[in-house]
Design brief:
heterodimer, A: 264 residues, alpha/beta, five-stranded parallel beta sheet, three-stranded parallel beta sheet, 8 helices, 34% helix, B: 373 residues, TIM Barrel, eight-stranded parallel β-barrel
């Protein structure tokens, strides 16, 4: 989807992106399915778990073969790291191997729900920002943590909608609304979005972008699902820009009951 | 308070009582529920669930894809010693098994050669195995084998004898990711019967091994019961309890379950609780419904045809092209004692081709050495 208006580009750390849909690369049944998803979504940011790739020898059939570095920014992530030291080591390794100094911080020491550790995330972000990285941290939908990370100098904040891979949608809606209202950096809703309607809902709320993975990888047709998400992201963004009317608890008659009270 | 205390509260009779009067309605509601209790697990493992395997399979497949996607991890075992002072009655390595084949412990150079051979086959994840001979192959020796293997592979795990927490710390410092340790059976009485000598006789020490490993920082804990040794319906309930216990108490470690079915035993041992293919499938499905987020392994103990069919029903990791004798990939021939006969003798390429045909992505690398210092 290339139709987002030019003046509405997503800007992260001074770099402009035409798409507000980011894609994760785990769980796909084949490199071809992933390639279809990237292609049909028009995504320009694709995140890759460093633990899944051999930076010294990328496989011909693996994840990296599905990405076109001329069209997509490869955003390495630290998934699998249990503390700040591990995440920092991984990030530096990726940079040393020639990747751009962008890093999606994922610090999830508890393997069952893969929830982000706020303490270690903040610590790693401090080190990596000072080290010159563009840092995009995956966080719990915690408005205070979001502000603290912004103060440190992270390029975005990426609060979760629901636990990774859960497809449960925007369960943290109220907190994400506060994060969006208070943030001075782009807010990317990451994790838990299982349907295009969830992505649209996030964008209507004013999120700057969303990231999806499982919902695409798990679909019967990853490419078509990716396109559906891209359309939903665009629709949600347009609705937010157009200004949604407020929700009301009851109907409001279009012929007012007090219309007869005309001041003379 | 450790898991062995919890087990004391769940003797044979109490676990068996979970199966009392299971109805078909209970089986169906256990399949439909989002979170399942031990009674639900018993319902799913019970004979009453047999007519509903298809529904269980659909749910197991859905949950596995949801948590792991359509991916299958690949690993290979490296047996680096078959010396064993234990005398597990069912095992080919046991000191008194009566088998006369050669006993060896690989030298560092021979381990290196095995690693190179496996690396050339594409592997990036290995499991190092030994018998129980801590005097000849002490923890420091195992740590050295881990360090050698780690130069070749991103992920190195061990399946060796039960050790102290300090030993696991040493292994972690050498680059260890995971520990696999089967309880064999959780039934105290039978455990004592089939383990007549050696360190392994100490039931409590063995039960609490994985918790010690988790406390030492081991990231992946793999458990299992040797299916066929005892009533698998009881052993799997204890296994599930153990998995849940580890998830709570070693919350930084991921917990995985293996399904080793006892098949080839030395002549002196008779399998009293043989498990059919359908029963093993039921076991995997029921356990998947109870532990949706746990990795499940299926080794080359099972034949190729069975592995191909079961793979998409809940399995997340498989070995391939395995040899269960020390030096089996390059250095040593058939004169060396193997632990068990491999049923699926296909090469890694053949297994990978099968995985792709089934619409799954084979994953060789899922860990990075940068996670260690």
């Amino acid at each position: 989807m290339q139709s987002i208006q030019k003046d509405d580009a997503l800007v992260i750390a001074g770099r402009r992106f035409g798409s507000r849909l980011m894609i994760g690369t785990g769980k796909f049944p084949s490199a071809q399915a992933l390639r279809d998803a990237i292609e049909q979504s028009g995504a320009e940011i694709v995140t890759v778990a460093l633990r899944r790739v051999d930076l010294s020898a990328p496989e011909a059939q693996g994840i990296m073969s599905a990405i076109d570095p001329k069209r997509q920014l490869i955003l390495p992530n630290t998934s699998g790291a249990r503390d700040a030291d591990e995440a920092v080591r991984l990030a530096r390794l990726a940079r040393a191997a020639g990747m751009e100094p962008w890093i999606k911080l994922e610090l999830t020491p508890e393997p069952r729900y893969l929830l982000p550790d706020p303490v270690e995330t903040l610590r790693a972000a401090e080190i990596l920002v000072k080290d010159g990285f563009v840092v995009l941290p995956y966080i719990q939908a915690d408005p205070m943590l979001a502000k603290r990370l912004e103060e440190i100098g992270t390029a975005t904040v990426m609060p979760l909608g629901a636990p990774i891979g859960s497809n449960r949608g925007l369960r943290t809606r109220d907190m994400i609304r506060i994060i969006i209202e208070q943030s001075n950096v782009p807010v990317v809703v990451d994790a838990g979005l299982g349907a295009p309607s969830h992505a649209a809902e996030s964008m209507e709320l004013g999120a700057d972008a969303v990231l999806v993975n499982t919902a695409l990888a798990d679909a019967r047709d990853a490419g078509t699902m990716a396109k559906a998400f891209a359309m939903a992201v665009e629709a949600g963004r347009m609705a937010w820009r157009a200004g949604l009317g407020p929700e009301r608890g009851e109907a409001e008659a279009s012929s007012p009951l007090t219309g007869f009270l005309v001041e003379k | 308070m450790s898991f062995v205390d919890e087990l004391d509260a769940w003797p044979r009779e109490r676990v068996a009582a979970l199966y009392d009067n299971v109805t078909e309605t209970e089986v169906l509601s256990a399949i439909g529920r989002e979170e399942r209790t031990l009674r639900d697990l018993a319902a799913l493992l019970s004979p009453a669930a047999r007519p509903h395997l298809e529904r269980m399979a659909r749910e197991a497949q859905r949950l596995t894809r949801w948590h792991f996607g359509r991916t299958i991890g690949l690993y290979a075992p490296i047996y680096f010693s078959n010396l064993c002072a234990a005398d597990c009655l069912y095992c080919g390595f046991a000191v008194c098994s009566g088998v006369k084949d050669e006993r060896v412990t690989l030298t560092d150079d021979q381990i290196e050669a095995e690693c190179t051979a496996l690396k050339n086959m594409g592997y990036d994840s290995v499991l190092l195995l030994t018998g129980e001979a801590p005097k000849v192959v002490p923890p420091a020796h195992i740590a050295r084998a881990v360090a050698i293997s780690r130069r070749h592979f991103s992920s190195v795990s061990v399946e060796v004898y039960s050790m102290d927490e300090a030993d696991y710390t040493l292994l972690c410092e050498s680059g260890l990711e995971g520990v696999t340790l089967y309880q064999e059976t959780y039934d105290r009485e039978l455990y004592s019967e089939v383990h007549p000598r050696g360190l392994k006789r100490d039931y409590a020490y063995r039960v609490d091994t994985l918790e010690r490993a988790g406390k030492a920082g081991v990231r992946k804990l793999t458990l299992g019961a040797l299916l066929g040794l005892f009533d698998w319906r009881l052993d799997l309930i204890w296994t599930a309890m153990h998995a849940r216990y580890l998830q709570k108490h070693c919350w930084r470690s991921s917990v995985a379950v293996s399904f080793p079915r006892l098949r080839h035993t030395p002549p002196r041992f008779r399998v009293d609780f043989p498990m059919s293919d359908a029963e093993l499938v039921q076991a995997i499905l029921a356990m998947r419904l109870f532990l949706p987020e746990a990795g499940f392994n299926l080794s080359t103990r099972e034949c190729g045809d069975f592995r191909d069919r079961v793979m998409s029903l809940g399995i997340t990791s498989m070995s391939a092209g395995s040899s269960t004798r020390p030096g089996g990939y390059v250095t040593k021939g058939e004169e060396v004692l193997e632990q068990f006969e491999v049923e699926d003798t296909r090469s890694p390429e053949e297994v990978v081709a099968m995985i792709r045909r089934a619409g799954y992505d084979p994953v060789w690398k899922d860990f990075d050495r940068a996670f260690h210092g």
